[in-house]
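re: ur question from earlier - yeah i can do the single chain one, its not a big deal. heres the input i used so u can compare w yours
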Amino acid sequence: MRKRSKYRPKHVLQNPLEYVRENMAPIAQHGSYLVTLKIRNSDAMVKLLRGQASVPDMNTLVAMSNITEALCFMNFGKEHVDIAERGRHAIIAIVERAKTTNRFTPTGLEVQALNELMELHDAQMDVLTVKDVDAAIHYARRAQNRPNVVRLPVVNVTPVT
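and the output i got, formated as tokens:
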């Protein structure tokens, strides 16, 4: 059998200047993307408060928490790491409770922590560039492969309509 080559073709940019300009642009200039993201996060939060949250809604909140925490560690709101941690602990508690109740039901303190987390996330998104968001996504994906990551249990929740 023939030895496999180590050569891997690299991605060629069609327009390198546009790529650089796009990465330097604030995310707020991409109005439709930012509005869609805020609507998706708010919708998941409203469903959670109504007791109608499903697994995809919780996945949205977990993704928001992961990116917010990654941005805090990348010095975008370093002084607000405690807010990100409280939000993460609130999500973990909600999912752990759902194992027994089969519903995602937050307590008052968890709702407060998630509201603060959402405010922090929105504030971070208002000042970031596209490059910063890409770096945060890359950081969060690398963090998922670490051995000390908290894995949420699989919960079969049927949303109440």
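The longest helix spans residues 81-101. not sure if urs matches, ping me
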